[in-house]
Design brief:
mainly beta, Immunoglobulin-like, 2 helices, 51 strands, 37% strand
Length: 607
């Protein structure tokens, strides 16, 4: 059925392409060599102001063009910013109005493509119980009232000495620098969070901790406060040396008074240069914890679109002693979303998700993890139903051996972990499962791996055998010629079902298995240049569209038009050759509905 409609589909697509040639160039300007900005985010600051921030890595840009529209209007340019200025404050807006924005880079050769669209709605006229406070490091005055740009405060000490309330805003002037700690106190309320952000146009305001080792050892601290949103800050914490400076952090959120903390958002911050060239799990970028002897937890925690790089220790992590899966009376974090962050290089793991139930961890870019010690790019611990999806991990390499250096790890003390729709490449290992109990019902499905250097799968210590049956299905693995990769290089796979996976080795007969599996089942897998295993095996070329062309730094805003080289072609022996699986998540890597006929083998269900 799938192959029989191919000619009709091609004729139809050809007709569409001819018609599309008449579309106006002004609707979709042709991009130059410049890459488009990504991760554009719009945040309403008041009834008349919206702050924008975005990410752009090209060095040959002159600046950025900001465009805006409302309702059914067409986009119109409203401003430009200079090279390196990836933030803009749009003021003088109407209250209770939704505005849409897009941004593109430009230089003397022309314009880039557009960023993603982002929208925000200005609030109604500020109520009496919410004030905006302005802080200006150059022209401020702590004896002023702080409630206008002209009467801005000057120092962090003034902010630290103030308890804020529902609807308040703490706005730091763009391009200014403060040295010291920002210690936030107070709580907002439902619908009236306290917002930390910037005002003006230019670079993010910078807060330098200087390697501080007091007040919880962090440059920015929020302690026992609910309903806060911390946006658009640049944060460092180092004394300038490469040595270990203690258990220090860039940004910490802490609850230690036995309460439930609602609505904590950390968005669009740039955190870098924390500590020296060190590892360890007691230092790093963003750390959200529930401490103290009385049970406490967070509800509605979002860590979004942050850039965390060049930090000793961890990039982003959560932790709590109150959520062990070994006890019935547990207090996990709820409604956790860690999305759109770029993390790395880091001294230890890029990201650790602990003590959270039903957490969504997606669209993150995890780069060069654990440059000063071992550690997988991301793992979870003391979680239930943690979903790690649509992430990219690469560059986690180190000495050959048994060190943890995989992209994605389903660690123990967890239940129902799902690692799905991810892209691992150029790590030592692709995907890991810890065999120690408790590790129940691990699922690894519809992922893509490319050129992971030593092994595709990495299991826990050889003596551990406490994990329940794991399921690994519909993953596509490509290994270029000459790497010498084994599927299971150093650790014995255990108690796992392998269904519908593609093991594609480019070099003739170069595929190696490594360790002999223990109590594992292989059904309906495709093997190319590696000996087959199990029943219903498919051999021969899987006919992938363009294997080995995945590249790096995937822009998930282009989804599903990403990694399309790993789709299967018409005529592939993998079509309809898989095993139907119940509870399969309902979609393939690119969002296609499962199944179209019988199951296909690999991450693509051909339509």
């Amino acid at each position: 059925m799938k192959n029989s409609i191919l000619k009709i589909t091609l004729l139809f697509l050809g007709s569409i392409s001819l018609l599309s040639c008449s579309k106006s160039d002004s609707d979709n300007p042709s991009p130059s060599a410049l890459s488009a900005p990504i991760n554009l985010s719009a945040t309403a600051i008041s009834s008349s102001e919206i702050n924008l921030s975005w990410v752009h890595n090209s060095k040959n840009t002159t600046g950025f063009k900001v465009e805006r529209k409302t309702g059914s209007e067409s986009y119109a340019q409203i401003a430009t910013t200079n090279k390196g200025e990836t933030a803009y404050s749009d003021t003088g807006l109407n209250a209770s109005t939704s505005y849409n924005y897009r941004v593109r880079a430009y230089n003397t050769d022309g314009d880039s493509g557009y960023s993603n669209d982002s929208s925000a709605e200005t609030s109604a006229v500020v109520s009496e119980n919410g004030k905006a406070y302005y802080i200006d490091a150059t022209n401020g005055n702590d004896t002023a009232n702080g409630t206008s740009e002209a009467t801005a405060w000057k120092t962090l000490s003034k902010v630290n000495g103030t308890t804020f309330g529902p609807g308040d805003k703490i706005l730091f002037k763009s391009g200014e620098v403060w040295n010291g700690q920002l210690l936030l106190s107070g709580s907002g309320s439902n619908g009236k969070p306290i917002i930390v952000d910037y005002y003006g146009t230019g670079n993010k305001p910078i807060l330098n901790g200087g390697g501080v080792t007091e007040n919880d050892n962090t440059t920015v601290r929020l302690k026992n406060g609910a309903y806060w949103e911390i946006n658009n800050l640049e944060i460092t914490n180092t004394n300038g040396s490469t040595a270990q400076q203690g258990p220090i952090w860039g940004l910490r959120v802490i609850v230690d008074n036995g309460t439930v903390i609602n609505h904590i958002y950390i968005r669009n911050c740039y955190i870098h240069d924390v500590n020296g060239n060190v590892a360890g799990k007691d230092t790093g970028g963003i750390y959200v914890t529930a401490d103290g002897s009385s049970p406490a937890f967070y509800n509605d925690l979002q860590i979004q679109n942050n850039l965390v790089k060049d930090v000793g220790g961890l990039g982003i992590a959560t932790q709590s002693p109150h959520a062990s899966v070994k006890v019935a009376d547990r207090y996990p974090f709820l409604n956790v979303k860690i999305t759109g962050n770029t993390v790395g290089p880091t001294g230890r793991n890029n990201m650790i998700v602990r003590a959270s139930d039903d957490a969504i961890v997606e669209h993150n870019r995890l780069i060069n993890s654990s440059v000063f010690d071992k550690g997988h790019s991301i793992f979870n611990f003391n979680t239930v139903n943690c979903q790690i999806q649509y992430n990219e991990a690469y560059g986690n390499v180190g000495p050959i051996g048994l060190a943890d250096r995989g992209g994605f790890d389903a660690d123990y003390n967890c239940k129902d972990t799902k690692i799905q729709y991810n892209y691992s490449h150029d790590n030592n290992w692709g995907y890991a499962i810890m065999k120690r109990a408790i590790n129940e019902n691990v699922t690894i499905r519809y992922n893509i791996s490319e050129n992971d250097k030593l092994s595709i799968y990495f299991y826990g210590f050889e003596g551990d055998k406490g994990m329940t049956r794991a399921n690994i299905y519909n993953n596509t693995h490509f290994v270029k010629a000459g790497l010498g990769v084994a599927v299971f290089r150093d650790r014995t796979p255990f108690n796992t079902n392998f269904y519908n996976n593609i093991f594609y080795f480019e070099g003739t007969n170069e595929g190696l298995w490594g360790k002999e599996p223990n109590n594992c089942t292989f059904e309906n897998n495709a093997f190319y240049n590696i000996t087959t295993r199990g029943t219903n095996a498919v051999t021969g070329n899987p006919l992938l569209e363009a294997p080995g062309t995945g590249g790096q730094d995937i822009d998930w805003s282009n989804y599903p038009n990403v990694l399309t080289g790993y789709k299967i072609k018409a005529g592939s022996p993998c079509i309809d050759a898989g095993k139907d699986i119940t509870g399969n998540g309902g979609k393939d890597f690119w969002g296609n509905t499962l199944y179209n006929g019988s199951a296909d083998i690999g991450a693509h269900e051909r339509q």
